[in-house]
Amino acid sequence: MLIEAQEPTSELVAHSSSKAPVAWQGLRNVNLLESLSDEKLAELATQCHWHRLEAGQVLHGPYLDQRLYMLIHGGLNVGSYTPGGRGLILGQLQPGVFFGGLAPQDPLLCVPVTVEATQPSLVASLSKADLEALIMSEVQVMRAVIERLSELAATLARRVVNLGTLSVRGRLHAQLLEQAERAGIEGDEALLSPAPLQHDLALMLGTSREEVAREMSRLTRLGLLQREGRDLRICHVDGLRVLLEESR
Description:
Layout: E1 11-13, H1 20-28, H2 38-47, E2 49-53, E3 68-81, E4 87-93, E5 98-100, E6 114-126, H3 128-137, H4 139-165, H5 168-183, E7 185-186, E8 189-192, H6 198-205, H7 209-221, E9 225-228, E10 231-234, H8 237-247
Antiparallel strand pairs: 1-2, 2-6, 3-4, 3-5, 3-6, 7-8, 8-10, 9-10
Helix pairs in contact: 1-2, 3-4, 5-8, 6-7
């Protein structure tokens, strides 16, 4: 699903015994693998390829080579870009999630995407054969895969509906609320740390950075948002929900 196939440029961590404890601890935090024993995780760690990425570096392979990728730590953006430079961020991946792996075999069903690190990141990848063996031997892993795919389908459906039915303001309100829920809402507040970049928000919403900046400034004047250094505090989550309902 990448625009063009390229040789991997990310560093592969060797499968040496000195790396096993680190890999072991990282795999324990992957949602897909929560049900596995320590012994099984240790075995799985030796089957993985390990990719270290710096901020801004592209991870070549996902959605093209049929491997399953797991984000151990850091952050990744999954986006699609035209030759002219226009783009859309399809998703922002957090540590513990898996991606790639079950890509469609029919090229006509594939959409060109790029996976880019937003910060220093560590990714583990598992071959299609090893993934299939794992799924067939561990029913809890199979269940986790199905649940994750169901969540992705619901998320993509919601984004399509928002893009087709909401104004730019409404789409921004919906995105901020989604990020607030991921960060955790306490009382009527949520702290987004670090604050989402206006450029990234624009790419996620299919609009310009200027439009995002104008609406963020308006929300700040209304007392709904407040910058705190590198973070962004949503001061009144319920107020943001009211604005979203008014825009529907």
